[in-house]
Every structure is written in C-alpha cells, then in structure tokens.
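in:
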C-alpha cells in the first residue's frame, strides 16, 4: 500500500514525541539544578572598619545597570577600609527635561552607600540636551560638557535641588570638573573670572538649600600649559580665581594630583607634574589667607598599564599609593580625604585607562586593592 506524505509525517511525529518529552524534562531539571545568578543581598552589610579615615576612592557607579553590582562594589570599597567615595551624578540623567527631576538612579547609589557607612563626595556635571539647545540652534557642535553662561542659572538651580534633597547625607559637592580645560566646557575657553561668576551662583544656591553644605571649588586639572585654547596651568588658574574674588565662593578646595611616572616623594616644582604638586596648590591658598579651608584630593594615583608611557610597574604603584596615603595622614593635616582614581568600571575600555582600577570589572581585586586593604584595616 502506498503511503501518503501526510501519513509519513504523522508517523515521524508520533515517533519523535517521546524524545521531545524527554528533552523537555531534561531541560527543566537542568534549569532547576543550575546555580542561581548573583542577586541583591537583603541583609545589612558588615560595619565599615578603618584605621585610616583619609583613605578614599573615586567610584563609577552611575552607569552600573544591575543593583547587585553596585552593592558588591560598595562591599569591596568598605572591606578595603575606605571611608569615603567620590561619585559623579550627571545633571543630564537627573533633569532630562527642564524642571523635571528623576532622582531614582541617584537615590539607589546614595542609599546603598549610606547603608555601608560610606560618605559621598558628589561630583556634579554633564549637560542635558535641553541646556545645549541654544548652541545647537546656532550650528555649533556640542559635547556632553557644553555649557554657556545662558544656562549657568539652570545648573545652579540643579545644584540647589541636589543639596536640598540629600541634606545631611551628601554634604560635600564638587560643582564642575577641571574648569581650566576647554574640553570640560565643550571645547570653549573659560577664564578664571568667568568660572568665579559660575561658582558664585552655584555656591549661593547650594547654601540656600543646605547651610551646612561644603562646596568644593577648583578640581583643576594638573597641567603645564601656559594658557590658550586647550588649557591653562592649574597654578595660574587658581591665582586667577583668587584675584577675581573666588575665595568667597568655596568652602574647601578639590585638588587633582597624579603621580604619573614620578615616585611619591619627588619634590614639587612649578615645572613638574607629580603627586606633591598638591603642596604648591596649598601654598597659593595660604598666600590668599585660606589656611582654614581644607583640601579634598578627589583624583590621584598611579597607573600600571605595561604599554602606557606614563605608567609605572605594579610593585611601584603599590609602594607609591601606600606612601601617598601615609603622607596625607602624617604631613598633610590640611587634607581631609585622599581619593584615588578609580575603583572599578562597569566595562573595560581595553586600553590603558583600565589600569587605573583597583578592581577588575569581574570584581577580581588587583594588587593595589589588597595592599590598601591591609594598610587601612590592619588585617
């Protein structure tokens, strides 16, 4: 008898059915037996313990998608013995539409850090699209840092809103980053005088919202450029801030000071970029009657990438980093925190910036992490 195509297909289906059922059962069993993926821990974290409270790191949590990764990062920061983190909170993420604030992403970081007993120094910047509209209408090319004086009051209003919301929880604010670099203004040269006008608005808005807030001025990029379209020497720019009356508009000074290839103890000099350049910054503060104001070093450190010509070896990095923390505690009573750049990033760049990290994206600790943990906790 001749079998039709439909009958043949039916027989094959009936024969395959038991195997399909077995495969489904096997798949379900495999799923049940597979280990659960990482999850957000619900129990409170271990109490923060440190012997050296000036130990601080710059984190990169804002762009972390999964909550458990934020939590694990903060676990490792606290376990290392750091009492403070510096974190960027982008204006563009919080006020995506003018006057409409979304605090969800910021709240999760602030609340998790608070649960770990960590203090936050908040760095505020990154310009939303609506605050770049005027430049775009004129056909100017903009970046995420592009800000012109027209929108300075909007940024000050945002800083005031931030200071009000996190009053008593986040009381140290760095308004803008490295203002002596044109890159940080969208490739627009900004003079010390203009920066002081910008800082005045920020300072007044922050203090109106939270009288106890500490507004950190400066955060200048260490550079030897004399001035012009790209950058202005940080020492020159700071003197210009004081000449323009800017000392009245910050409560403490944020300082960036990198070791590059120099050892920690190399003496400072105006023509050198090294870790102790912070002492030259401090001298300018003293010359302008600001001895009572503290310094927060919000970026510092050494890179140990084997292919970058401004890096050092891993052993030297460990030695210089520990010596830097010891100097800050022993000799720099005017420094409230020494924050190394940076702790960890969500994803690698596969280039030399990865070698600033204390911890790899997969949470593997590097040698500098273990060394600082032993120093800060005494373990």
């Amino acid at each position: 008898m001749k079998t039709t195509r439909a009958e043949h297909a039916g027989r094959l289906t009936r024969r395959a059915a038991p195997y399909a059922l077995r495969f489904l059962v096997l798949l379900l069993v495999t799923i049940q037996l597979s280990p659960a993926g990482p999850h957000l821990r619900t129990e409170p974290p271990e109490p923060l313990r440190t012997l050296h409270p000036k130990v601080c790191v710059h984190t990169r949590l804002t762009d972390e998608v999964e909550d458990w990764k934020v939590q694990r990062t903060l676990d490792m920061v606290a376990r290392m013995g750091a009492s403070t983190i510096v974190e960027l909170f982008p204006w563009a993420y919080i006020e995506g539409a003018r006057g409409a604030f979304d605090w969800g992403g910021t709240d999760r970081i602030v609340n998790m850090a608070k649960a770990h007993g960590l203090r936050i120094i908040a760095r505020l910047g990154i310009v939303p699209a609506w605050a770049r509209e005027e430049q775009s209408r004129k056909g100017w090319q903009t970046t995420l840092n592009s800000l012109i004086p027209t929108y300075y009051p909007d940024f000050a209003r945002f800083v005031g809103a931030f200071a009000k919301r996190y009053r008593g929880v986040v009381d140290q604010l760095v308004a803008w980053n490295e203002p002596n670099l044109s890159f940080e203004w969208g490739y627009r040269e900004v003079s010390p005088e203009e920066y002081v006008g910008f800082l005045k608005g920020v300072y007044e808005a922050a203090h109106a919202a939270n009288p106890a807030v500490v507004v950190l001025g400066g955060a200048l990029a260490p550079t030897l450029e004399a001035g012009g379209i790209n950058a202005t020497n940080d020492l020159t720019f700071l003197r210009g801030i004081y000449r323009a009356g800017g000392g009245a508009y910050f409560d403490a000074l944020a300082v960036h000071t990198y070791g590059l290839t120099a050892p920690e103890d190399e003496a400072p000099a105006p023509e050198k970029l090294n870790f102790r350049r912070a002492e030259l910054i401090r001298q300018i503060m003293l010359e302008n009657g600001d001895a009572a104001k503290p310094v927060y070093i919000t970026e510092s450190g050494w890179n140990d990438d084997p292919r970058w010509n401004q890096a050092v070896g891993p052993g030297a990095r460990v030695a210089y980093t520990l010596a830097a923390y010891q100097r800050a505690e022993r000799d720099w009573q005017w420094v409230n925190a020494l924050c190394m750049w940076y702790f960890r990033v969500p994803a690698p760049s596969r280039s030399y910036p990865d070698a600033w990290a204390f911890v790899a994206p997969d949470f593997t600790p590097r040698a500098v992490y273990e060394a600082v943990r032993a120093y800060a906790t005494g373990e």
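note: DSSP finds eleven helices and eight strands in the chain.
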